[in-house]
Amino acid sequence: MSRTLKIISLFILGWTLALPAQNIVPRAKYLEFARTSADWTWNHLDSLVQDWQDRFDPENIWGYRPPPRLLEIASIYATLFQLEGNQQYADRAKQILLTYGDYRRYFPEEAARLRVDYSAGTPALPDFFTAMRYLRAYDILKKYGVLTRSQQKVIEQMVAHSIDYLFQTQEWGAMNRAILRAESLAWAIRAAEQHPDIDRWRMYEKALGFDNWGNWQIEDASLYNAVWLYSLLGYADAKNEIHDLFRTPEIYYYAHYFLQLMCPDMMIPDFGDSNWRSNWSRFLVYFEAAANVYRDPYLKWAATVIADKFFDFNQIQNTGLAYMALDCYRYGTDDILPKQPETLSSEVMEDMVGKKVVFRTGWSADDTYLLLNYRDEGDGGLLFRDYLRDGIPVEEEKMTHGHSDENSIVLLMSRGSVLLHDGGYRDYMPSGPYGAFRQDYFHNRLCVRAEKIWMGQKQGEYRYGLQDRPEIPGQSVLDFLRNAGSYRAVRTQKIDFLSFDDFDYSRTRVVDDKMGYQWDRTLVYLKQPELFVVFDVLKGLKEEYFTGANLWHTRQILAQGDHWYDTCYDSLARVPLPTENQLLIYFPKTHYRLEQVEQAKRYYQDEWVISQTTAQYFELGQHVGFVTVLIPHPADSDATHWVEKIRYVPSSDLLEKGMSVEIQTGKGLVHCGIKSDLRMDMIRDYRRPKYTYESGKIQFGEFESNADFFFLNQSGNQLQYTVVNVSKAVYQGKELFRQKPALYGLAFDGSPDQAGIGKLRYWRDVANIK
Length: 770
Description:
The protein is of the alpha+beta class. It folds into four domains: about 160 residues; about 120 residues, no CATH class; about 270 residues, Distorted Sandwich (Beta-galactosidase, Chain A, domain 5), CATH 2.70.98; about 120 residues, no CATH class. It contains 20 helices and 31 strands. The strands form seven sheets. It has an eight-stranded antiparallel β-sheet with strand order 7-8-9-10-19-16-13-12, with no helix packed on it. A six-stranded antiparallel β-sheet has the order 20-21-22-25-26-31. Strand 27 and strand 28 form a beta hairpin. The longest helix has 20 residues. It is elongated and about 95 Å long.
């Protein structure tokens, strides 16, 4: 074979390997969809406007809302005219622009008088989510001489009046509603650069845009992340600075951040103020644009699978989607072949901004995926957050649009089934009952209160002095936890994350300085057989009564027994879900724990909350723990046999210095566990290291170590082991590993340099045992 043929063959092979199973959408298809949708809307315009008139509500909380669809098709037609020169498209866009302000006549004067922001008259462009669509169309028609000077004057007077209205409603900072305003201003400046008010517009466009350009968004909510990114892209477009935008480190970061969050549903999971699959179209445009600028096949893959999963090219009545399809054409490229990412479990992206961890087996629809969110408000954007806190009634939000979801499991999927899911956005404004759905008790997490719950007693228990020892129902956990839903500021930290072939592990922390507690959540993902072990440690930072409630939410409880619950999600609101897989939730640690199952309104539907709760007086630094095992399994299989194969193994001391579980896998015995208090080792300050092996060692049955975390897998006479942050490990009296001493000097007490033993990051090895 000739050298040229070999090169061609290798190229074709590489092309084939990179091709995804999904259909790649060419840019021309997006453009034709936009054209077809605009034509359908134009042909039905009279009936659509009549329908708007019939439904018009002058008491709408948002005030005057003009007919939908018109701005989208005006922008589409103007762009088609720019691309193809068809005068009919220009005439249609022109007609919409010149008559758009006329619809204000349907808004009664008495309704306008009730709104102080309409004191100068009803604005023709009242919605900053869509005003830029009018302005984009005007910019093109003006540039190509379609409009007379008198027509331009009429349009620019209307635009200026709407911008004056925009100035009356102030929202600023690195957030979606600010960049939407900046985008509209940028298009107005571009289209009407000779307007007498242009300097004022430029001043405020810069004020709003500056806070968002090259800055971290303050919203931890996937719905609004998409709005912000898409509007920031439009803002850069208006200023002819798209490549400058993508050169900022923050936008590069976000491209890969959202790529790494992609779940088996081929979409970004909903967290914070968001809903299932919300705003996929805005993410689609962003990924198309980012893939083009960065020449990145992985970002192109994200765009491809989103389009393949969600874009219905027969849905021509959806002009909002058509407008975004036009932007896929404008910002995208056909020159990049999509390539599916290969990274597995990872931090997303780190522990300062993203503060999320994804556990995954792959990137296909049938793979297992779990998202842990430990994002707090953080220190960034303080002025922006405080401005919103002080100006609008959003006390339930982690400022802004965030939830009390620190250390919560946002989503668990396996083989296409949703097994755990987030709580949803809200029932109504500003929040629903009890802060729905933002407060901590709407999430899969530990909820803590600085009081002690009334636990009641089971039949035959001796908690209360009644001779027949009757059952006395305990207090409802949800009733005990519920309040107005106001957000409590906490701090979060990543303690550790490691990923190996046989298991992945993370430990993250929530600190509530005001209430006075610390909560560590450790997730262990055992890959074969597949299950998750969740260790939760609640530590008192002051002497106080505390109640800790370990909450797990689900749609259906299909069966239950002693400390186990077989569950599934068959729907999310009105969206049916596949139920081929189910989730067994098992609590192997049960002493002095109250378990309850209660019905709760969550994600706009009736759900069940499974809770395991304990309460006591905490001495300073005292801690308690919870252990939950999550077992995905096929719906046609009985997973309850796992209950007999999983055993809680406490540490061999009275203080419960550690927690562990043993799991009979069928091929051997897995034993994994944690140190509950990571500071227990520290016994001296006058020299380094502060710790000794003796001060930090914990015994778990036949295993002893000072490791923060350990994972043992015994099969026959072979023991595979991993120990983390460790200086020594012993099994059945035999040393598995010992760190050698080193010379430590410069002691604070002035003593001579002497030997000391430090800790290794981790140690993995295989040992032969009897």
